[in-house]
Design brief:
The structure is a homodimer.
Chain A lengths: L9 E5 L5 H14 L10 H9 L4 E7 L2 E13 L3 E11 L8 H15 L4 E7 L3 H9 L3 E3 L2 E7 L13
Parallel strand pairs in A: 4-5
Antiparallel strand pairs in A: 1-2, 2-3, 3-4
């Protein structure tokens, strides 16, 4: 059970370069929770390069100078709604849950979205993650269950598969 | 039925400013097909401003100088996979389907993804859009049905809802 004392001790701030390894540790922890640790093919070196080039932003929650949660996000666009901010990962390390850190990270993320004049924020949740679903519904987010994700590893795609006409 | 003669007549190119109204017409047509025309709150003026500011890119397919298809996309990031290119919309106007335009647009999109060193391309498909699902599986894309979309209209969110601890 998390110590309630921790609650007043966390801070939320934009990531700096030295936070990158701790951010990666959080991502690995979530991948383990989502039962797909082998799906993570990134590493802290890749993160640092891509973060420096602006591919994503991170908000970090810290307690006693240790990263205990992250919100990893980037700008996106909806042809229907306009400017969007996409939350790729919202993670609170297990022993720090229930203290308001997830909500504080989400608030900070939405504040960043507002600064960019993004009209909509979007993210995804696993269909079996009941606790997260309840949380998102509680804050007024809308769940949309009718879409499937389609993904393609870029390098495995050959342009010469030209026998398909659509 | 589409005239097969059209097949050799289309071109694919990156959008220019004067293409914006035709791009919006394509988006409206798809929204109608997906039975949600009222969900479109953008317009060509918003598109132009956001496109000029780099929020998204568009590839346009043209036949006889008319836009007959689009691929609207932007960079994104996966904490698990790294650099991503996200395809928000892939549209071929109805009378031009079956001629290879959708495949050509997808090829051009993936070529752009490769140029950016994006390791993964992602998009979404409605669960009842069988024809699109078959097409995506045919080109080797993977369908992931276990995630739900969560969306929040930024302006409707109040940060003072602070009684939720997660």
């Amino acid at each position: 059970m998390a110590d309630k004392q921790k609650q007043s001790n966390f801070t939320i701030a934009k990531a700096t370069e030295k936070d990158i390894p701790g951010i990666f540790d959080c991502v690995k922890e979530l991948a383990l929770f989502e039962m797909a640790p082998e799906a993570v093919i990134t590493n802290p070196v890749v993160y640092l390069e891509d973060w420096l080039k602006g591919w994503f932003e991170v908000l970090v929650a810290k307690s006693d100078d240790r990263i205990v949660g992250i919100a990893l996000y980037h700008p996106a666009y909806s042809s229907w709604k306009g400017r969007m901010m996409y939350l790729d990962d919202l993670i609170v390390t297990e022993s720090y849950r229930g203290l308001g850190i997830g909500k504080a990270l989400l608030d900070a993320f939405i504040t960043e979205a507002k600064k960019s004049n993004a009209v909509i924020c979007k993210w995804q949740v696993l269909d079996w993650n009941k606790e997260a679903v309840v949380f998102y519904e509680k804050i007024g987010a809308e769940l949309d269950k009718g879409w499937w994700n389609v993904k393609l590893m870029t390098l495995s795609y050959s342009l010469w598969q030209s026998d398909i006409a659509v």
